[in-house]
Design goal:
3-stranded antiparallel sheet; alpha+beta; about 45% helix; 2 helices
Length: about 90
């Protein structure tokens, strides 16, 4: 299993398990918009170079994702991007 990636001075295998939970675990939002939210998150992850969505599962009140993020992005920076852009896109569509 050789899934090591490399940048100019580093080799890495950075995979993060991320859980996104809406405020108060609002099931109504995820039950109605579940498929669309998944498509929006996948689209935003694919926009970032070298970031890859490995697995995702949408539960009734939260979303689990396994994402490969290169070390040039911090996890906090990536999540800030993902949450802000996805909130705008969801608000715009619905």
């Amino acid at each position: 299993m050789n899934d090591m990636k490399s940048l100019s001075h580093t080799s890495y295998r950075c995979k993060y398990h991320i859980v996104i939970v809406p405020k108060y675990r609002r099931m109504v939002i995820f039950n109605k918009l579940r498929a669309d939210i998944g498509a929006i998150l996948r689209q935003l992850i694919e926009r970032k170079p070298d970031c890859k969505l490995i697995e995702k599962e949408a539960c009734p009140d939260h979303i689990h994702m396994l994402i490969e993020i290169p070390p040039k992005y911090s996890v906090a920076q990536f999540m800030g991007y993902l949450k802000s852009k996805s909130a705008l896109m969801i608000f715009e569509r619905h």
